[in-house]
Specification:
The structure holds 2 protein chains of 2 kinds.
Chain A lengths: L2 E6 L2 H8 L50 E3 L12 H13 L3 E8 L6 H21 L7 E7 L10 H7 L1 E8 L5
Parallel strand pairs in A: 3-4
Antiparallel strand pairs in A: 2-5, 3-5
Helix pairs in contact in A: 2-3
Chain B lengths: L1 H11 L1 E6 L6 E5 L6 E5 L3 E2 L1 H18 L2 E3 L15 H7 L3 E9 L5 E9 L4 E10 L4 H17 L8 E8 L2 E8 L6 E6 L3 E6 L5 E6 L6 E6 L5 E5 L5 E6 L6 E5 L6 E5 L7 E2 L7 E6 L5 E6 L6 E6 L6 E2 L6 E7 L5 E8 L2 E8 L5 E3 L7 E5 L5 E8 L2 E8 L5 E5 L4 E7 L2
Parallel strand pairs in B: 3-5, 3-6, 4-6
Antiparallel strand pairs in B: 1-2, 2-31, 6-7, 7-8, 9-10, 9-32, 10-11, 12-13, 13-14, 14-15, 16-17, 17-18, 18-19, 20-21, 21-22, 22-23, 24-25, 25-26, 26-27, 28-29, 29-30, 30-31
Helix pairs in contact in B: 2-4
The chains are: A alpha+beta, B mainly beta.
């Protein structure tokens, strides 16, 4: 009934290594219910002579808007110079698309406490919002939310992975919820 | 030289693997207390099956504490003091001896009659009838282990207390309440959105926690008796980090409704919201002192996350942690003389304690991935989230750093533990 197995194991030494190893692979995190508005694809254009179909720049892989995230160094919440063109492009897009708003989702890597990271994610989302406001977008078109370290896009424990998780995601939403 | 160092490391890492009936749970113990009480636990007389189940719990509880050494009771089965031959137990090296009987009453209740005997003085140290409802043999065992622990160490036992934690499996999250040894697990909430930061009400009747089920962080309070729950704070932005005041009449929470993450007080019914920090930076993870007068919290107002303290009624906010590294997740010790927290330095997380009077930090663990520590009610053990074998696990360390324990619960990652009443 009672089994006591006594042995000597170098568990501490193993534990020291454990944090270096990637965790068990898991399915990529589906972001919680993002309301990503797909650009209304124009009805299939007739083989018209002139291409007057407007392509939503969101769906143009060559447009900077195809990058809908800005990234942060560890424990930093100021928009980095290298990422400012991404925010500027979103400001331009919003100024040209009155029917669209943006939700800014702040995320962190898993270093730090969960609660601190929730707060840091909020701070990052707010930093992007403040920058968009400074570029002339009215604040009420911009909402922020933090997922802290809870919704990582990459789950391994290394810097390559962590840097992908330290980000604001820009989610384009309709000004009014779709009926 | 190096070889000798390795040998001494191996020697100090003597590891006890307690494999129990429940295949899904295993516990590893590393280290031992400075002084281990040699004690013999004789399986009780009466209902054999119950007696063995209870014996198993008592023995494992005491071993996990690191403060006891088991003396073999083989070939001896006294159940009453008159049947005890003290010289024989003295010869085996026992300082104390636990004996008793157990039976199922007509009403279905388990009743154990238990005595703890001092082998050296040949005297009874304690005698008690412990009863529990049908199927609660583990509870009877924990109570008996608590009594033995209290008599032999002078500190209150915590084997009958409970813990709460979050189990994450892929994108599935469960809020779990279990006995302090990880058994008797009950799911409080199960969903596909993150759950964070469980916090016990002082009487153990309710849990406050953070759930993302409405796509942003909202604080709920749920009764563990009726399972009924209500939203405590669901303002726009993040609502998080609930912490109960010791009198249960107030909680501290962190809200971003006015901009940055700031600390607010709120009544358990969600009324009386009052902002108490105004840094404009991150203020989070509030924790009340046992006398209810102070809050410890984490803030990045100085440029990096550190621990601060402030009077709940407002006043001077004092930085508590300095030096290399950053610090998170402070919690007062039950005697109010210090606090435990997570210390991050050179990419490694450690569990550390600090004394208010001396201001000295003491690191208790080897470091790695160690987060969210909380004291057991007796202040002798600290539970925290750790990682081993590529999984999130629960771990404990004694407050003197000598005894460590790792608990491998069911599949998935165990996170966000907190020790309850």
């Amino acid at each position: 009934m009672k089994k006591l197995v006594i042995g000597i194991m170098l568990v501490n030494l193993l534990a020291a290594c454990a944090s270096q190893k990637p965790k068990e692979p898991e399915a990529a995190a589906p972001a919680p219910a993002p309301v990503v508005a797909e650009a209304a694809p124009a009805p299939a254009p007739a083989p018209a002579p002139a291409p007057v179909v407007e392509v939503d720049p969101l769906n143009d892989p060559n447009n900077i808007l195809s990058s809908r995230s800005v990234y942060y160094p560890f424990d930093v919440s100021a928009v980095q110079d290298a990422d400012k063109p991404v925010v500027q492009a979103h400001a331009k897009y919003l100024s040209e698309h009155a029917a669209r708003n943006v939700r800014l989702e702040g995320n962190c890597d898993e270093r730090g406490s969960n609660e601190y990271n929730l707060a840091l994610g909020a701070k990052r989302a707010q930093a992007a919002k403040d920058y968009l406001v400074s570029l002339g977008i009215t604040a009420n078109r911009l909402s922020t939310i933090s997922y802290g370290e809870e919704v990582p896009v990459c789950k391994e424990q290394n810097e390559e992975c962590w840097q992908k998780n330290r980000r604001d995601r820009f989610v384009i939403v309709p000004t009014r919820p779709a009926s | 030289m190096l070889l000798r160092v390795i040998q001494s490391v191996i020697g100090s890492l003597f590891l006890l693997h307690v494999s129990m009936a429940n295949a899904e749970l295993s516990i590893e113990i590393i280290g031992a207390g400075e002084h281990q009480v040699p004690v013999a636990i004789v399986p009780f007389g009466g209902d054999d099956k119950l007696a063995l189940a209870i014996n198993d719990v008592v023995v494992n509880d005491l071993l996990r504490s690191g403060l006891f050494r088991m003396i073999d009771a083989e070939g001896k089965s006294p159940h009453e003091p008159a049947e005890v031959s003290y010289p024989e137990w003295l010869a085996r090296g026992a300082e104390a001896l636990a004996i008793g009987t157990v039976a199922v009453q007509a009403n279905g209740r388990i009743e154990a009659r238990f005595r703890l005997l001092d082998v050296v003085k040949q005297a009874e140290l304690a005698g008690q009838v412990v009863s529990a409802s049908d199927g609660q043999a583990r509870a009877v065992g924990h109570r008996i282990a608590d009594l033995i622990y209290e008599k032999m160490t002078g500190d209150k036992g915590v084997f009958s207390t409970r813990i709460a934690y979050v189990n994450r499996r892929g994108q599935h999250f469960r809020l779990v309440v279990a006995d302090s040894d990880g058994y008797n697990e009950q799911t409080v909430l199960s969903q596909n959105q993150p759950i964070m930061s469980p916090s016990w009400s002082p009487d153990g009747s309710h849990l406050a926690y953070v759930s993302f089920e409405t796509d942003h962080a909202v604080v709920y309070v749920q009764s563990l008796y009726t399972n009924q729950r209500k939203m405590l704070a669901g303002f726009s932005g993040s609502n998080s980090a609930p912490a109960w005041a010791p009198n249960g009449k107030q909680l501290a929470v962190v809200l971003t409704r006015d901009g940055s993450s700031q600390i607010y007080l709120i009544r358990p019914d969600g009324t009386g919201v009052q902002r108490i920090t105004f840094s404009g930076e991150i203020d989070t993870e509030p924790n009340f002192s046992p006398d209810g007068q102070y809050l410890l919290f984490t803030s990045d107002r100085g440029g990096s996350p550190q621990i601060y303290r402030m009077p709940v009624k407002g006043g001077v906010e004092q930085r508590m942690t300095f030096g290399e590294g950053t610090n998170f997740s402070p919690r007062h010790s039950p005697d109010g003389k210090g606090f435990v927290f997570t210390h991050l330095v050179s990419g490694k997380f450690y569990i550390a304690v600090q004394d208010f009077q001396t201001g000295q930090m003491e690191i208790l663990t080897e470091g790695g991935w160690e987060k969210r520590p909380s004291f057991a009610p007796n202040g002798k053990l600290i539970m925290f989230a750790s990682e081993a074998r590529e999984r999130g696990i629960l771990a404990t360390v004694s407050s003197d750093g000598r005894v460590k324990q790792r608990m491998f619960t069911q599949s998935g990652d165990a996170r966000e533990p907190v020790w309850g009443p």
